[in-house]
Amino acid sequence: MNSESAAVDASWRPFLVLRHEERHSKGERPIYLLWNEREEKELRQKWKAAILLLIVITLLGGCFAEKPALEELGADGEGKIKVLYYDEGYFYREYGNTFNAKYPNIEFEVITTLSIQKDMKENGTTYEEEYLKLVEKHKPDVIMVGSASFEKLAREGKLYNLDPVIEQDSFDLDGYLPGLIDMLREPGGGSLYGLAPNFNTSVVYYNADLFREHHIDPPRNQMSWTELLELSSRFAGLGSGDDRIYGLSDEYGFADDLLFTLARSSSLRVLDAKGEKINFNTESWKEALEVTANAILGHTVYTVPLKPIGEGTILHSQTEQFFQGKLAMMIGSSSLIGDLRNRSKDKNGTEVNWSFVTAPVDPAAPEESGFAYVYDIYAIAADSPNTRATWEFVKYMNGPEMAKAKSRSFRGDLPTRVDYMKEVDGKSMEPFYMLRPKALSAHLWRGLDREFMSGFRTKFSNLVLKELKEMVENGKSAEEAAAAIEIEGNALLKQAREAVKAEKEKAGKK
After folding, report:
1. Taking residues 492-501, what's their average pLDDT?
2. Angle at 432 (CA atoms; ends 426, 437), nearest 5 degrees
3. Considering the entire predicted model, what is its pTM?
4. Is residue 67's pLDDT more than 70?
């Protein structure tokens, strides 16, 4: 054997690995594994390298771990928060004082919206224009915003995305009204740019004593409009003259409001998808007009006389009729509860047993409500210099602690958190919370600029009332009425927009 062969043979010095204990205990013969010493050495080196690499990765992971979205704010945290709100005194009563008790070193500067109406008149501008100018001028950290401006600001990247800090702080979103967070995500394309502590919605209030007296089953949750009107029709013909009993009314008894209330349940919209024109000459609107006119004609519902609404028209709630036993059911918002609680006795001073169920729903979407809405959404400016303290405040406004406090002093608006408003005067509040809000894109007046919601809205309502009167008193068809409303409505819309344009030009010449 030459020296080279000897060297090769020398590398194959076997060593015995006896797994004696394991196999001997089982009565098996021991196994002897033959290993090459060089391979053993290489294997050990690989293991050492792997362990070293794991240590390096662990150390690097600690160095480059993702930083928190925002640093923690302790009880002694300092800062100044600019807040856009209606009124300074009201702000401190609602939120500022209690937050300062928790964070005494946080200072507030309140920018009020009180000047907007005056600036609109002086500049010939719209509410939204003056509102956005106010935001741009004062650059508040906390922005109180309505749904229209919320969508615009979110789309333009001017609001802070709350998702990262919500995840970091494990801020509970599951406790909100079902569907509310989805509705708030809609303007942000799926991202959440604001939160709403309160909401409002409508229900069907009913006089339980009146139903019992006439042996009629009371309404139930999630009835369709067809079912509700059939129930209401059972009261037609009861009583006479001034003591006639009606089955149903809108809160203020206006026929156009009844039509629009019916339309909300079915996700109808006044304007087209682009928000450019009145879109009333459709099968859905014709059906809504037909149902409303027939209900008025058959005394299934109560409405005030079908005459034009003037600027000085005084709104009278139908609670008086309700407590006099002349009205079995009334569709109204959560704000109506206060009135009902204060006037809980009938004309003879007897306690009235009233209750409520959900507003009518669309049978195609029985879990949704077209009546739920939020007045105010609270967002954080994307360029806020004090995001940490600002988020702490927005979180506080929308947290369980504030919801619990608000539920103790109910004034009409409902906490968006469902666990803190279980009952009022022993009445379950479930009907207010059991339906999901419809998407913002399905809202009745979507696309209609805010400046038209007074002047134009009144003129448009009078147009609708005129056509309903023609249907009820003169037999005009729903097809003719819908066509007339669309044609004349678009003329009114054009006139209103031209008036706004002229006001702007006039203001620009000053």
Report:
1. 86
2. 170
3. 0.82
4. no
